[in-house]
Amino acid sequence: RKEVEQDPGPFNVPEGATVAFNCTYSNSASQSFFWYRQDCRKEPKLLMSVYSSGNEDGRFTAQLNRASQYISLLIRDSKLSDSATYLCVVTGGGNKLTFGTGTQLKVEL
Amino acid sequence: DAGVTQSPTHLIKTRGQQVTLRCSPISGHKSVSWYQQVLGQGPQFIFQYYEKEERGRGNFPDRFSARQFPNYSSELNVNALLLGDSALYLCASSLVLSGSQSYEQYFGPGTRLTVT
Fold first, then answer.
1. CB-CB: which of B33, B40, B104 is closest to A96?
2. pLDDT tens across A83-105, in order?
3. Do A96 and B56 touch (CB under 8 A)?
4. DSSP string covering chain A, please?
5. Which end of chain B is more exposed for a tag (fewer CB within 10 A), N or C?
């Protein structure tokens, strides 16, 4: 079983739609959780950290369920510029980041 | 403020050669990590350094080595290159090693290595 699993997509959604990505992780000792965004042939950029209480940043909402070892990202009112690959990331022992393979989002007119 | 910088941006090497990649962290950041990303996959952890000491190592062969300098910049060395080493090599810096939100990691633009 992979340490971090994501549906690779692609998710093709119209502009203005709401889309949700899910991610599961296998290491129950994981301590910190993040969503990164990666554009084609670019470096990953930190989108948001994910807290136990859940957190929201504008159109983006992240949730963490430690009991189910599950992380989610919700994007409301999708924009064309949201098209990218979204990487679910967890930290375990030693603070290394463990990445999922990413979920590709394509927002269309 | 300058972000994480890496050099070179692109590199072409032949099998068996050696390569050195360089990274300068965000000013004030003391931890540097290296990742390898092959097409279609998420980045894979190679090394983490903090205060010039190795603090973590991923599942990579001994052909991969790294070091961190007193100014917190870092080098990644790969010996005896194989075709499978072709990838985007990413450097990330964080303020501290662990324990708080401050260890969010920020990535440089990467070095794209092609081994022929």
1. B33
2. 999 999 998 755 678 999 999 99
3. yes
4. --SEEE----EEEETT--EEEEEEES-TT--EEEEEEE-TTS-EEEEEEE-TT-EEETTEEEEEETTTTEEEEEE-S--GGG-EEEEEEEE-GGG-EEE---EEEEEE-
5. N
